[in-house]
């Protein structure tokens, strides 16, 4: 999710299916000579919603540091945001760059997002400024879904790497050549190609999460083939083009929280790390690449410092466990160590995208895993990076796609808490 990478790819936070686009040229501004802002309502439910804002530099000079301003027309409030420092006074909202994303080259853009509340109406703002330059125009009314499905995550992130290096390289950390299969598992369940579709099966649900869709072109579908005991069979297929340093999607099987709760009971989550409960999982899958892909197959664990997080509560920590990668995909942050867990070696990366992101990248690809995921959180606790007082709120298993065409067939997947 959200979220929640670089090639070294970096995931890009939240996307919206309905947008109001504004643009104007102002030659008097010193730092930015032209700007456009795209405001999107990603999802809306009850009294809450998730918003996405993309700032584009349409001028001819680079921007080094930006401040966005706009006014909520209907009394909306920001509950929490990412990829910038968000403040609100009355109806006035101000967002300052997060440092690592302060530079916007000509033709480039930065995506930021937030969770908010509304009552009565959720009208689109009609005026934006960037560094004092007005970016204005006539808005269009957004169309929104009724459930919070977009993911502000690491992979739920940003348009530039928050690491010391600001330049992504598509050839860095290239993995072993992917294996292609000509006999993927048959699709027995109906496909759902709706953005952010949620297919609930028992305690689990399959999330057709396409939060990076705005940074490319293409589509993604998901399906589920039913449960066999505690084992879920599901799959996804995709075709994505565009910037190969930005994640377009993370179709996944979700247990627990994902900016809200699709299955509110029976998940065993959240659970405090200090409780010492095992998180055992078995996953057997098959990757079929129709074209060359920049992608990974990974677990995504989310942690909070509160016992009852809801849609408005961003995580404090994210732990990824990469089982498979191709096309040079690599995690956010920098490599800290190589560790041995569950009899296998993993490269450990550490980064920050508004919360801490830890990624264990298997040094050789696999298509099957039988793990206790607390072995990975225990490693982080032992390093003093993760507090045992934190609550594990979500366990997800899926595939991040940057570019390419293919499919993932999960023949069986299970996860158990305790």
UniProtKB/TrEMBL annotation:
Source superkingdom: Bacteria
Domain CBM2: 28-138
Keyword Hydrolase: yes
Residues in the signal sequence: 1-20
Keyword terms of this UniProt record: Carbohydrate metabolism, Glycosidase, Hydrolase, Polysaccharide degradation, Signal
Comp. bias regions, Low complexity: 138-188
Family: Belongs to the glycosyl hydrolase 12 (cellulase H) family.
InterPro entries assigned to the protein according to its UniProt record, in alphabetical order: CBD2, CBM2/CBM3_carb-bd_dom_sf, CBM2_carb-bd_dom_sf, ConA-like_dom_sf, GH11/12, GH12
SUPFAM superfamilies hit by this protein: Carbohydrate-binding domain, Concanavalin A-like lectins/glucanases
Annotated spans, Disordered: 138-191
Protein name as catalogued: Cellulose binding domain-containing protein
Pfam assignment, any one: CBM_2
């Amino acid at each position: 999710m959200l979220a929640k990478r670089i090639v070294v790819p970096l995931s890009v936070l939240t996307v919206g299916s309905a947008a109001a686009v504004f643009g104007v040229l102002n030659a008097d501004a010193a730092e930015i000579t032209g700007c456009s802002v795209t405001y999107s309502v990603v999802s809306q439910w009850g009294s809450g919603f998730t918003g996405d804002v993309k700032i584009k530099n349409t001028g001819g000079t680079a921007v080094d540091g930006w401040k966005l301003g706009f006014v909520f027309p209907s009394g909306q409030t920001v509950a929490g945001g990412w990829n910038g420092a968000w403040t609100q006074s009355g109806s006035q909202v101000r967002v300052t760059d997060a440092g690592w994303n302060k530079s916007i080259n000509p033709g480039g853009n930065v995506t930021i997002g937030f969770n908010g509340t509304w009552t009565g109406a959720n009208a689109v703002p009609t005026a934006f400024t960037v560094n004092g330059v007005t970016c204005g125009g006539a808005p269009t009314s957004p169309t929104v879904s009724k459930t919070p499905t977009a993911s502000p995550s690491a992979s739920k992130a940003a348009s530039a790497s928050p690491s010391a290096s600001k330049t992504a390289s598509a050839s860095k950390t290239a993995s072993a050549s992917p294996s292609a299969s000509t006999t993927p598992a048959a699709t027995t369940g109906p496909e759902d190609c709706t953005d952010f579709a949620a297919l609930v099966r028992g305690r689990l649900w399959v999330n057709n999460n396409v939060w990076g869709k705005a940074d490319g072109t293409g589509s993604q579908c998901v399906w589920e083939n039913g449960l066999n005991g505690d084992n879920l069979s599901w799959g996804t297929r995709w075709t994505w083009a565009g910037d190969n340093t930005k994640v377009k999607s993370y179709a996944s099987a979700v247990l627990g929280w994902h900016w809200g709760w699709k299955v509110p009971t029976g998940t065993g989550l959240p659970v405090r790390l200090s409780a010492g409960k095992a998180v055992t999982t078995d996953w057997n899958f098959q990757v079929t690449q129709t074209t060359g892909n920049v992608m990974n197959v990974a677990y995504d664990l989310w942690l909070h410092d509160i016992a009852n997080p809801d849609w408005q509560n961003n995580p404090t920590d994210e732990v990824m466990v990469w089982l498979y990668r191709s096309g040079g995909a690599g995690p956010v942050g920098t490599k800290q160590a190589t560790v041995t867990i569950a009899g296998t070696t993993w490269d450990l990366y550490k980064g920050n995208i508004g919360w801490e992101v830890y990624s264990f990248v298997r040094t050789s690809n696999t298509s099957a895993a039988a793990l206790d995921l607390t072995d990975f959180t225990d490693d982080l606790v032992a390093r003093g990076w993760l507090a045992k007082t934190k609550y594990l709120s979500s366990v997800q298993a899926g595939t991040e796609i940057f570019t390419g065409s293919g499919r993932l067939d999960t023949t069986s997947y299970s996860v158990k808490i305790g």
